[in-house]
Amino acid sequence: MKEFGLFINGRWEAAKGGRTAPTTNPATEEPWATVAVADREDVRKAVAAAKRAHDSGVWRKKSPQERGEILQKVAAALFERQEEVAAAEVQDGGGTLRKAMSMDVPGAAQTFMHFGQYICGDEYKAMLQEEYDESVPIPSKNLVVREPIGVCAGITPWNFPIIMASWKIAPALAAGNCVVIKPASVTPVTTLMLGEICTAAGVPAGVVNVISGPGGSAGEELATHPDVGKVAFTGSTEVGRRIMQLGAGTLKKVTLELGGKSPNIILPDANLDTAALGALFGTFMHQGQICESGTRVLVHESIHDVFVEKMIAGIKRITIGDTMNMMTTMGPLVSSSQRDTVEKYVAVGNEQGAKCVAGGRRPSSMAKGYYYEPTIFDDVDNKMRIAQEEIFGPVVSVIRYKDEDEAVRLANDSVYGLGGAVWSANKDRALALARRIETGTVWINDYHMINLRFPFGGYKQSGVGRELGKWGLAEYHELKHIHVGENTPPEGKFYFQALLN
Amino acid sequence: MSRVAITPKAAEVVARIRSERHGPLSFTIDGGCCEGTAPHLLADAVLTPAAEQIGEVAGVPVYLQPAMVETYAVARLTIDVVEEPLSDSMSLETAHGLRFVLREGFYLRRA
Question: Taking CB atoms and an 8 Å limit, are B32 and A21 in contact across chains?
């Protein structure tokens, strides 16, 4: 059985308390690796290593060019080890090898490549320093500069472990920070591997530290540690609330990327074949375990019956099977408790009067593993629990609407505001709708198109702040205004007269 | 009238945590993707005014987050505890490899 320690200061370390835990393969329901479990002392050690590295200047004093080249080397190393890392990702978190080979590892590598290249360019130079000459009220040169924050903590979820870790590590390092990452306790392996990969690619010891441990101890320690300047969290809304609250004690910069109940709006003039497959892709990809999944499909009443038929027919093209077979497109959920939650909501959906027209059970073909069939509920009212609460599994609610105003009202009738989509042949019409939807991302005629150049995050209770793109990168910096005044005799400072006669 | 109860086992865990932590404890029933709808035991929790207290168990007040208030309007809930060695919830019992869960025995509202 593989064993993983904590990755602190460029080295593998056991947890101080010696605690380890097995991590389970969701396909076999058996443990496949053992991981050290960090407690508060281990977290303090990791933060101390990051702080030492930051204060020494070993990373932040490198030029953006030098940092960028190292980040690009991390990308290359990830591509080199693609099969190994992808296999580990699937064994730890479920899903499919097809997803891990086409999304997880390339996505992680591309994240390092993107930020590594961006900081070598002129746009980043301009982000680092802007200059202004002022003459009023007195002559001065003014610089607006961006600097790293210091030690940044990243707390990441189990649905895309290595991508989520990369979304935290790459921009933080690009900006000159040092990081401590706490991956989800059920999927720590690829993030721990990433710590080692970064170090081997030339990231100095202490700049990237990875500790795996429970939220209530290791997570709380990171969220309250006085030397951590920023906490970036991706996960559930209730944990995000607590992290924001804990950060308040030391006024940390907090970015939160939380849950969603994203509306997927189908207009009557859309290509219904494409939109139906898009609705399936938007809600069943990775077994529905994606924060911005389009879990509410809002269909115009005139096309409802035809559209639902196309969705049901499209499900035949989803292949449930062995996770390591590249023909499999739907794997197991990450854990038995996640499947319990899905089953609870399917029962609730039935009890509340929604009509289950596909799925609603475990696949009989899979004797082992936390599998569940793609499930469609029709005749859903937006007020039902299955339409308001985040299920995080392969369960979609189909909701009818009469006109665009109702579609918008339904779309926005949620405490969440993460993703959304509009399908229509008329782009102007779709754009007008997009502007009215209260979500951080709106896709027109597409779904799940994450682009590293553009900001990602939530309105309302789906989050605080943005990741990715120059906007996300900016949030990993402090901002300083330097006013350069003249060394004149006292008469040159007329504003002293407010105090001095 | 209290709409929430607690099992003896869970009450013991609350007592154990109370002896370890400073600050007022509270249960907040909240929902989300990864921890499901669960009671979170926190110290010094900051509560939104729209949260509703539905009772007290083991000397700890229990609140519903605003999004849960309508859903559980006629609910009778029980707080229980299970073993969970690898929880990422910030709830205090997770440090002991345990997790509070909600047993729902209630009349579902038709939407």
Answer: no
